[in-house]
Amino acid sequence: MLPIDDSPIVRDGKSLILAMDHGLEHGPVDFEEVPEKLDPSTVFETATHDAVTAMAVQKGIAEGYYPSYEDDVNLLAKLNGTSNLWMGEPDSPVNWSVDYAAEIGADAVGFTVYSGSNHEVEMFEEFREVQEQARDYDLPVVMWSYPRGQGLKNDTKPSTISYATRIALELGADIAKVKYPGSAEAMQHACKAAGDMNVVMSGGSKTDDYEFLSTVEAAVNAGCCGLAVGRNVWQREDPTRILDALEKVIYEEETADAALEATE
Ligand SMILES: O=P(O)(O)OC[C@H]1O[C@](O)(COP(=O)(O)O)[C@@H](O)[C@@H]1O
What we know:
Blueprint: E1 15-19, H1 22-25, H2 40-46, E2 54-57, H3 59-65, E3 75-78, H4 98-104, E4 108-113, H5 120-136, E5 141-145, H6 158-171, E6 175-178, H7 184-193, E7 198-202, H8 209-221, E8 226-229, H9 231-234, H10 239-250, H11 256-262
Parallel strand pairs: 1-2, 1-8, 2-3, 3-4, 4-5, 5-6, 6-7, 7-8
The structure holds 1,6-di-O-phosphono-beta-D-fructofuranose.
């Protein structure tokens, strides 16, 4: 793994990655309640908040919108991604290369690996190629480490999430992004399984302020180095307010209660 503390996508050892690849992964349905967010510029504006260390997007969004924000936002190039229309075993085609991401100005690359899927072998091989090319550019590699597939009944059980962080470490990721395994103890074990590699929690579908922030608080206390989040930020009416609160919970290690009180 790279010594990533000096990377622009890390601030004081922590990261807050704002993800906006949902138009591909889930489809426009994710924007139904916030139709103005269909315009990617609105989410790039949100990503200019100091708490955000990188914005994760697919190629077309990076090409079209990142040039206007390159001075204010760090780009995490999400290199693979699939649509919700795909009905086969979990898989994720590689949509752009590390070379092209570096040319556009990426500060890091991201890659989904569905361990346990029938496509695991090809996905590991594709990850190998991406990881080694990223080393040529000194770009940190964030693995969306999502064990998933017909053999896996529960993709958030503690042993699965610990396996997910460990797979990311073994395959050479610099940051693993994993789902919350349901308890602080389980997250602590998953962070231990990752050795010295940074682990960030995945945001998930939108929940209320307190529920969301207290899960982030638990994850940070368990050893997580932050969050990679989409809907729980940009589906909110006031994304700036939740980012103000996240800044307190993640970087200042305040409680969810204190962060909410301070941002009311
Ligand atoms: O595969 P899933 O569980 O539908 O989630 C995929 C989405 O989750 C993310 O990893 C994080 O976004 P959310 O915080 O909205 O869950 C996105 O990058 C991606 O589009």
